[in-house]
UniProtKB/TrEMBL annotation:
Protein name: MFS transporter
Alphabetic keyword roster: Membrane, Transmembrane, Transmembrane helix
Species classification: Archaea, Methanobacteriati, Methanobacteriota, Thermococci, Thermococcales
GO MF assignments: transmembrane transporter activity
TM region(s), chain numbering: 7-28, 48-66, 73-92, 98-116, 128-148, 160-178, 199-222, 275-294, 300-323, 335-354, 366-387
Record bears the keyword Cytoplasm: no
Pfam family, one: MFS_1
Native source organism of the sequence: Thermococcus thioreducens
Amino acid sequence: MDKRWSSVLLDTLVMTAGFGTLTMMAVAKPDVIAHFGIGSAEYEWQHIAYVFGLFIAFLLGHTRIYEGSFKKSVAIALSWAAIAQALIPLAPNWYTVVFLRFIQGFVVTLVPLFSTQIAHFFVAERPFAKGIILSGIFWGGVFGSISAKYAVGAFGWKGGFWVTVLIMYAVLALWWLFTEDFEIIHKTEGGERTNVWKMPFTWVLGLTFFPALWVIFTIVGFSSSLGYDMGWTKEHVATLSTSLNVSKALWSIGMGYVGYLLSRKNPSARGLFRAIVQVMIFSYAVAFVGLLIYGKAMLVGNYSLALASVVLIGALQGTGPAFWTSAPATYPKSIFPKASFALGLISNSANVIAPGLTDALARQSTGLALGELAVMPLLGILTLVVVSRMGLPVEELGDEA
């Protein structure tokens, strides 16, 4: 196999291990609550902290932490999750666990790091490669939750946490052995012309992925709450969540491949960007239909219809491969690594506000909350239309700027 594609598969394995093992907290919930003597409301603090960590993580890309060796940077990114995972069972109190969960959110920096890698390997194939890598997040959710049950049963909740640490570092060792290193260089932004934060294009492009993440980080917990309120069993809720994860993984790969087919027709910067916009608009359109069906299903309590709707809702993740290949396609080589982190920070701001706002709307009216989720793909399409008419930084500054 081509070394580039074997690296993509190894990257996917790292993503699966890094995100899959973090499901241990949910699986071990009863044991964790009993050990720390907390209630269900306090237990949710750790999830809020983790999601906030996913947002703050992208600020690290503007420091020197991820400069230099690519392999070292990936090891650091995975270690945010692994070291915190090892310390959680040893935490003296619940507040320490909440802080450690915040740190674990930094593992999401694997995403822009792998974007930098595939930008070195590919041009037209970038969306497909990125789609495969991003699918690892959702394969991790599926297989992680299943394996975590066996780990807790065999080793206890503390042992289960430590086993997942070993898994993460075993996968990292395998990845390290077969992955070629390169230098990540961030150009010092000494002037206005090369500061990605001062480019309107950065803000609008970052907001194109914001609606997708709004729904992705809200719908699982929201579905669980509504499902239990309607009398669905734990198995029903788990099946719905698993089906959504599988759907997102498959859409990630499928739309990544479509992005590749469109990109190879015109591998210029404008051609690549046009393919990115087309893939994201199509994915949003499919997801919009799915969310309409989902809304109807949840209002009437139709589980079969809700389960069918997630096949289409998963198309939201079809926007991911395109979005995460937009920086190397549209920014000069010297600044696109920083641009990736900037775009991640802007888009992931949805993580911080979406679940809480949706929950607040649901307390007023379930229909209102469902309507809010359904309108998000339309906002995504509107933002994509706007950004498609803007000039690209690489066109204005040149590829070597």
